[in-house]
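User: Show me sequence and structure for the first protein, then do the same for the second.

Assistant: Starting with the first protein.
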Amino acid sequence: MAEAGQAALAALGQDEDQKRVSVVYADIAQAQLQLGDVTEGITYARRALEAAQRTESTWGMQHLAKVEKALAARPDYAARELLGDIRATRLALGPSPA
């Protein structure tokens, strides 16, 4: 799964596609969490969040919604911390366009 995600990231251009990076990372994170690899899932979710923050991507934040649900069920500190960061970023970016 990580190889497919890395291939997708490599295919993205350096300029206009940077907002999509957060989406790819979020999708990888979701897959890793579903497979039970919490450490990798959190790592990719953090990358997705950082990319969404950097590009102010509401699309990336929408993709992180699935990750939020998976993280909400996790009792570990890293998951809870990331969940708080995702929620804070969502508030800072404001509502997504309808």
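Switching to the second protein now.
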Amino acid sequence: MSILRFPFPSAYPGEPAPEFARLRETEPVVRVLLPTGDTAWLVTGYEDNRTVLSDPRFSRAATTVPGAPRLQPIPPDPTALFSMDPPAHTRVRRLASRGFTPGRVAALRPTTERETDQLIDELLETGPPADLVAGFARRLPIAVICELLGAPAADRTQIAGWVDVLLSLTAFAPAEIRAARMALKQYIAQLVATKRRSPGDDLISELIKVRDEQNDRLSEDELIMLGCTVLTGGFLTTASQIALSWLCLLRHPAELARLRREPDLLDGVVTELLRYNALTTGGGLIRIALEDVRLSTATIAAGEAVLPAIAAANRDPRVFADPDRFDPARTDNRHLTFGLGVHYCLGAQLAKMELEVAVNAIARRMPGLRPATDVTLLGVQSGHLVRGLPELPVSW
């Protein structure tokens, strides 16, 4: 059986690598060689992806064991929420979920709307052309996630830089990634110390209260890593999704015009953007099989790694009619962008809210928005887990 090199090249931002479609039909479970030199089973079909994402026989905690196959240059931190299995994961996630309740997400909407309007004001004041990535898409999510945690606005640029490094595949050396992880952990530890002395109405202050009043529920390392996880998961993916979403809308002017005429269509547009845009090199985080598990066309042996290709699953024609067409009117849109099972994205509703606000506000306030360059020539961000846009030049 052939072993392919992963990740596959993608010719266009937001589009899944063409190799995914071929594999989904011919070798839906196939061995791949990762940048680290390790091998894994890549899974491209929708149903197989559901199994890998939700079956407890596929472990995230096992990826932290020394020598375990990995996708990124350094092993995952075992105290990170996404590196845990139940019951530890259940305990920590229950506490972390306090920051992402419907009430807290709703409370963050005015902040998100205010930040969005301020960024648009700056774009309009400066005038075209502008880069929608640097001028908007990267700035909004870091503002919202820092507001959620209680991190000072002055630290946003530094935090964003650490996250860029942490989500690297080949763009940064292992030593640089370790240094960024350590710097972010030290930053959160200092933020925790500050919030202990002077609590606020933020997630870190709330988790400190849980930690200090119920000492056996959350360790200090877990508390610090929760802050790191929220920052890592809440910035770059959302920033890239916003940029790719506007690229998609600009490539589909009829759908954009319809949204402007009928703003009530926003929910369907955002849901379809989440399905349509191939945000990462493949999708989900790597898992290790705890026992032999049979998938559609292959058996994953105990100890072997498996990589769910969510970008491929979201274009599976067995589930999505005409999957390569951007269709905001699509019904029963069961995309897997936020994952499935116990590791379903903790901040899914927050990310969706931010995308809704960003799409709605720009569509409403910048009716003449158009590309300032040939969009077919835009580059794909390489060397990272998240395949966002390096830039999106626009005019109006």
